[in-house]
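quick q for whoever's on today - can somebody do inverse folding on this one?? i tried earlier but teh output was garbage lol. tokens:
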């Protein structure tokens, strides 16, 4: 620790000197702007206040809030103290928020006014929490400004390998897992993204993905790292996004379908100039990607990654190999292996594994899961792919034990949705899986067998699920059938998908 370490707080200090009076962050809702030097001053004041409140190295700090300057300051102050940020997906249900917070056992939680009532309702289930605070100066908890003190901040020596953030992944086997990402993971990802985009201090990033998401947080840090401007949106609105792209000359953003398509539709109506948008990275369909490139003259970058790989594993320009996920990142050794962990031949499908500084620190307090994931010295993603002769990765789905649905960039495990559906008194059996969806790229479908003499409509079941877990996890499609095909007494998932998983879901 020390001579060879570099933390996120070290980056904040470095940029305060390199880009002193350049604007680092702009709140699009209020127009509030801070320079890189002012941002460091704010982070120091908050870190000093948290230090006085007893926050120390290794403590977790929960955040339940939408994108804001205050949220980004909390990340910076935690980095300065060696504390770990625990951002929570506010789209989750109350019970899911309670689980994620309880799992991380935070000493302190910051909350938006919008979510204060919900967090108050689960306060009794969070025995680790010593203090609650608002992300503004309104609300039932301690005001944000009151935590920022003028006492000089006595810095903490933080190792690059120390944990910085815990991001909970989708619920596999019935429970989410907290992925612990280090300072080094985040900064290495930032350098990769800078390399990919050719980012500089003349760029402008539209910060529209939520900071609880690995892509949202890492893109904000990536722009900050380069000395670029982060234009923050607390809530995505396509028309507002188009207006900001034109007025602020936004040059980069991260896209999950249907974000980019909605922006292009809004631009077509408004006629605003969005040709400054020179680079977009993410996941989308070829029609939207090519439409974006025709409209702006910009470049779309395909990628493959996970929270566990610090957002990135492969990346590349769409035009270099349309449909692929690009080539392995410069500091990532990607291998495709069979079930015995033997490498597969070029052109053959195997599990995507990664070795290198982008691999996360492990799942929070889940040692058995970590041993399985990191077996034989590699991170096993649970995803499948194949390499072509030129080294481009082609995504080929997921291993059966890690079946996952990704509507609009969110992760949903079928087992979690199936468990809720089976709680309905009219449902005897069910299987949930992903199907093509024109808006979300991948939609959620439930095929159900009802109990004898029971009746249930599609809408009733969808509303039932949406009332018990996050609404983005509810099925968009429901089909009732007389029976489900079986193999050895268990639902034959492949057969169900073949029967009911076509384009016309």
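ok took a stab at it. sequence:
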């Amino acid at each position: 620790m020390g001579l060879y370490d570099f933390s996120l707080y070290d980056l904040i200090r470095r940029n305060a000197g390199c880009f002193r009076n350049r604007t680092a962050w702009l709140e699009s809702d209020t127009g509030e702007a801070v320079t890189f030097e002012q941002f460091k001053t704010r982070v120091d004041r908050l870190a000093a206040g948290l230090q006085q409140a007893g926050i120390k190295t290794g403590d977790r700090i929960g955040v339940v809030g939408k994108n804001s300057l205050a949220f980004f300051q909390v990340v910076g102050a935690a980095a300065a103290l060696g504390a770990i940020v625990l951002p929570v997906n506010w789209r989750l249900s109350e019970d899911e928020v309670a689980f994620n917070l309880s799992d991380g056992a935070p000493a302190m939680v910051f909350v938006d006014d919008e979510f204060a009532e919900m967090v108050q309702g689960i306060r009794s289930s969070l025995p680790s929490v010593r203090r609650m605070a608002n992300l503004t100066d309104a609300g039932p908890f301690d005001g944000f400004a009151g935590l920022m003190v003028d006492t000089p901040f006595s810095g903490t020596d933080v190792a690059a390998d120390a944990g910085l953030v815990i991001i909970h992944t989708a619920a596999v086997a019935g429970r989410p897992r907290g992925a612990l990402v280090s300072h080094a993971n985040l900064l290495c990802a930032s350098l990769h993204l800078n390399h990919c985009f050719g980012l500089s201090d003349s760029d402008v990033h539209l910060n529209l993905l939520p900071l609880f998401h690995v892509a949202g947080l890492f893109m904000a840090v990536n722009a900050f790292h380069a000395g670029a401007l982060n234009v923050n949106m607390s809530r995505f609105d396509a028309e507002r996004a188009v207006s900001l792209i034109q007025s602020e000359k936004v040059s980069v953003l991260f896209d999950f379908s249907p974000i980019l398509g909605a922006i292009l539709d809004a631009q077509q109506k408004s006629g605003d100039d969005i040709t400054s948008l020179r680079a977009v990275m993410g996941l989308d369909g070829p029609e939207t990607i090519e439409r974006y490139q025709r409209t702006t003259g910009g470049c779309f970058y395909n990628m493959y990654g996970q929270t566990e790989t610090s957002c990135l594993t492969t990346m590349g320009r769409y035009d270099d190999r349309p449909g692929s996920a690009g080539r392995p990142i410069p500091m990532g050794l990607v291998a495709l292996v069979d079930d015995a962990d033997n490498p597969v031949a070029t052109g053959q499908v195997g599990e995507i594994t990664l070795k290198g500084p982008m691999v996360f620190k492990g799942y929070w307090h889940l040692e058995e899961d970590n041993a399985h994931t990191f077996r034989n010295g590699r991170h096993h993603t649970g995803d499948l792919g194949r390499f072509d002769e030129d080294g481009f990765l082609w995504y080929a789905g997921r291993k059966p034990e890690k079946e996952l649905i990704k509507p609009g960039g969110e992760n949903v495990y079928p087992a979690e949705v199936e468990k809720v559906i089976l709680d309905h008194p009219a449902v005897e059996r069910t299987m949930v899986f992903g199907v093509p969806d024109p808006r979300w790229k991948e939609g959620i479908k439930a095929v159900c067998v009802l109990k004898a003499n029971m009746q249930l409509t599609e809408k009733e079941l969808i509303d039932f699920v949406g009332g018990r877990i996050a609404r983005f996890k509810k099925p968009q499609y429901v089909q009732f059938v007389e029976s489900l095909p079986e193999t050895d007494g268990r639902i034959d998932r492949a057969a169900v998908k073949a029967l009911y998983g076509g384009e016309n879901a």
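fwiw The chain has three domains: 8-235, 327-402, 407-500. also The two ends are 55 Å apart (CA to CA). so keep that in mind when u check it
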